[in-house]
Amino acid sequence: MTPRSSALTRRRLLGTSAAGSLFGAGLLAGAGDARAIPAAEDAAIRPFQVNVPEADLADLRRRIAATRWPARESVGDQSQGVQLAKIQPLVRYWGTDYDWRQAEAKFNALPQFITEIDGLDIQFAHVRSPEPNALPLLMTHGWPGSIFELIKVIGPLTNPVAYGGRAEDAFHLVLPTWPGYGFSGKPQEPDWNPDRVGRAWNELMQRLGYRRYVSQGGDWGAIVSQAMARRPPPGLLGIHINMPAVVPPDIAKILSNGDAAPSGLTGAEQAAFASLDAFYRKGSGYASIMNTRPQTLGYALSDSPAGLAAWIYDKLAAWSYSGGEPERAFTRDEMLDDITLYWLTNTGASSSVSYWEVWGMSPFNAVDISIPVAVTVFPGEIYRAPRSWAQRNYHRIIYWNEVAKGGHFAAWEQPELFAAEVRAAFRSLRS
């Protein structure tokens, strides 16, 4: 690739202004948009349980046993990707001792449902609090996550008294699965972008009878929360995010060109710039592939368990607050619960399409939001958002806290801390 084409790819990946963020006018529609959810579709909410055929699990074990491994990397670190000595034991354990039925039992212990929205089945968990005045909370997973990254916080958020909290901090939880992920339907047409997903999420909350609610998320959960907040539907009181989009247009342009950091940045801003620059230079190759060739990538992810495991493990290592050792943040079974869900639902390709839908957009570029925004900055996030940047585009910051541990998968890595942050973040919005 020539330097010019490399720079062009970089600019397309990052975007160079607020209009080049995931929330530009081309993706976002207002509450009265003509593409609103069809009123005539079946609004029935159907109970849902998982019972994977044993034959599918036997096939998985057979494929793992037949894995053809590549040669060991030629370096002593992770600069070439997932190291053979890391992924091989995990995959071998997957094929011999891992028990999907335990994960399935955790899944089925939750009240699970499916409903059709905008022509697509949406699977979700709906966990009501025992507290009558609980605040409805919409919470969305990310990639390469799933409902499994949120399970640990369900109890603390819905029943805080049982976890040392206060009854008045309780939430009713709605946890939808992004289209093309898990047990939600796989879109058969394009344009399931964050704005369309946001409209579907709002429709889901209305069907469940929630006229006033809040939204939370990191990764795709942050992206859809901010898309909804930019032109909020009636009843969305505010959002809490742990991957905020606050990079100012001038900084985004410098990053997209690969130029040096400008003078005059504060220490926090310099650190954020350095993290983003490193991510775009050496950590965003996965996104370039998913942005442009999700179907081609999908053949490998659908056919090779080891390939799928390595693709996901790479991000668990890079984005958790673990120094590149995800085993410090998750157990083997926790990682494999998530990986196996992608495998059994054959969503390696369809989940990658969510990236293709936003090709040319950056999830970090600033978007103006006028409704209440709460932010928790975790130290292991892709970048630590400076409040000085956020104050330019979040016009009603109701909560801001920078915590000492946790990464991109905050709810999964630090559930107790995460739950405390969410409770504190929305406390001022309760009536």
Tell me briefly what this model is:
The protein is of the alpha/beta class and 431 residues long.
Question: Can you tell me about this structure?
Answer:
This protein has 431 residues and is α/β, with parallel strands linked by helices. It has helices at 3-14, 54-65, 84-96, 100-108, 151-158, 194-207, 220-230, 249-257, 267-283, 285-292, 294-303, 305-319, 332-344, 348-356, 387-393, 410-413, 415-426, and strands at 45-47, 112-117, 120-127, 135-140, 171-176, 213-217, 236-241, 373-377, 397-402. The protein has a single domain (3-50, 104-284, 356-429), classed as Rossmann fold, CATH 3.40.50.1820. The chain contains 17 helices and nine strands. The protein has a nine-stranded mixed sheet, with helices on both faces. Helix 5 (151-158) crosses helix 17 and helix 10 packs across helix 14. The longest helix has 17 residues, at 267-283. The N and C termini lie far apart (57 Å). The relative contact order is 0.16. Mean pLDDT is 92; it is low at 1-20 and 23-35.
